[in-house]
Specification:
Layout: H1 7-25, H2 35-59, H3 62-69, H4 73-81, H5 84-88, H6 91-104, H7 110-144, H8 154-177, H9 181-188, H10 192-198, H11 200-215, E1 223-226, E2 231-238, E3 242-247, E4 252-256, H12 259-262, E5 266-267, H13 269-273, E6 277-285, H14 295-301, H15 308-324, H16 340-353, E7 365-368, E8 376-384, H17 389-406, H18 417-431
Antiparallel strand pairs: 1-2, 1-5, 2-3, 3-4, 6-8, 7-8
Helix pairs in contact: 1-6, 2-6, 3-4, 4-7, 6-7, 7-8
Length: 432
């Protein structure tokens, strides 16, 4: 096929003819080797490139793209916010410079080589910036979807950007040195070990990102605790090489992404997705205040509606036991009687079950822990319906406020070391 019939060749010939005619009208010599000719044509070429950039940007405005994208409102807004169209418009000047250089300059001139190389580098830079903008758009739209709650794609977006950056860099170097990209790629095998050391964190982060996404281990917004790094807060970003966590004191901790899979991490997501937040706290009771309940105490405690059924049931059980075993209830050595601490424990269980902010569908109990030198630990174990931190602390505080206020009713006393020492000293002085 004759090259003169090729569309590109025809456009090139028409462009050169048009420029030569215009220069003749202006009285400028059409000699391709003339300095004046080269200067004027180069100026015209860059002016055309600038005009084309403005024209394409005017065409790719919000109205046009909104009409083209139809109902994809989020796409239209996100593409514009990340400047996809404005960056894409730069391809036209690069094409104008490339076609104009091919049409107007002789391949033997240094200016031809310079402008063709410049246009290719320009195209590569514009292409990379458009790819970056598209990746940012995809990440933004993904963050608005329900899938973002299950897995983060920030790491994959960053590895995609890295791969395209490496490919673009190889092409740029090949253009500058005039060698094939395949030749450069083959030369990289000689420095593969060095590259592995340089991109060690990147490779580890990429592998960790796959593990995190595949197993849904972590996501942005998760509350994590890592004692080794002093981290206690919410994940705000999981990147290719680093993860950022905003601690509850508003400081931001940055740690390697692979540390999330290699180190011990406590993730509170399970608590957020469950039906309640656990309350697990003990109050220490003075072991010397534990006693049997007499009739006067039981009469008083029976007036508390939460334990009235409990006391009546226990009285019937004890009466039946004494009858079956022929034991006089006044026989303190052989009879069974209620204790103030046992009755108090039953009261607290009933109190928690009737508490409006306790999720009774989850474990709810009051238990004794092993006694120690501090007394008898009475532990409250239940789950708050409200999992928000401030509200959770208020509920927990209200429960223990009530517990401590009810101790004297059951003739119990909380252990407090200083007061106990003073009381012991006072008793010792009395005996002396």
């Amino acid at each position: 096929m004759d090259d003169s019939t090729h569309p590109v060749q025809q456009v090139s010939s028409l462009l050169k003819e048009w420029v030569d005619t215009g220069l003749s009208v202006l009285g400028i010599n059409n000699n391709p080797e003339s300095t004046m000719y080269l200067t004027v044509v180069t100026a015209i070429l860059f002016i055309m490139a600038g005009i084309s950039l403005i024209g394409v940007r005017l065409i790719l405005n919000k109205t046009t793209t909104k009409w083209l994208l139809g109902r994809l409102k989020n796409w239209d807004q996100s593409l514009h916010s990340h400047k996809v169209f404005s960056r894409f418009a730069h391809l036209m000047p690069a094409i104008i410079i490339s076609v104009g250089t091919y049409s107007l300059f002789s391949p033997e001139t240094a200016l031809y080589s310079f402008l063709m190389g410049l246009s290719k580098l320009y195209m590569l830079a514009v292409g990379l910036s458009v790819i970056y903008a598209i990746f940012n758009t995809i990440e933004h739209l993904y963050s608005l979807s329900n899938l973002a709650e299950k897995a983060s794609i920030t790491g994959f977006i960053q590895i995609g950007k890295l791969l395209f950056s490496i490919v673009t860099l190889l092409f740029c170097i090949s253009i500058l040195i005039g060698k094939s990209p395949l030749l450069l790629l083959s030369g990289l095998t000689a420095v593969a070990a060095v590259l592995l050391l340089i991109f060690r964190d990147t490779i580890l982060g990429f592998v960790s990102g796959i593990q995190i996404a595949a197993n849904q281990m972590f996501n942005t917004g998760d509350w994590i605790v890592m004692e080794k790094f002093g981290v206690d807060g919410e994940i705000i970003e999981i990147g290719l090489t680093n993860a950022k966590v905003q601690n509850w004191d508003n400081t931001i901790s940055t740690l390697p992404t692979y540390a999330l899979t290699n180190e011990a991490v406590k993730n509170w997501r399970g608590m957020n997705e469950s039906g309640g937040r656990r309350i697990k706290r003990s109050i220490y009771l003075d072991i010397h205040c534990v006693r049997l309940c007499d009739e006067d105490m039981l009469a008083t405690l029976s007036k508390i509606k939460y334990i009235t059924p409990y006391i009546e049931k226990k009285r019937q059980e004890l009466a039946q036991y004494h009858c079956d075993n022929h034991i006089d209830q006044q026989d303190l050595l052989n009879s069974r009687q209620l204790t103030n601490i046992g009755t108090f424990r039953a009261y607290l269980e009933s109190y928690l079950i009737h508490h409006p902010m306790i999720n009774t569908d989850m474990t709810t109990m009051v238990r004794h822990r092993a006694p120690s030198e501090l007394g008898i630990p009475l532990e409250i174990y239940c789950f708050s319906c409200d999992k928000r931190w401030i509200e959770y602390e208020k509920i927990q505080a209200d429960i223990f406020d009530h517990i401590m206020a009810m101790l004297p009713v059951f003739q119990l006393r909380a252990y407090q070391r200083d007061a106990d020492l003073i009381r012991s000293k006072h008793t010792s002085n009395q005996f002396n």
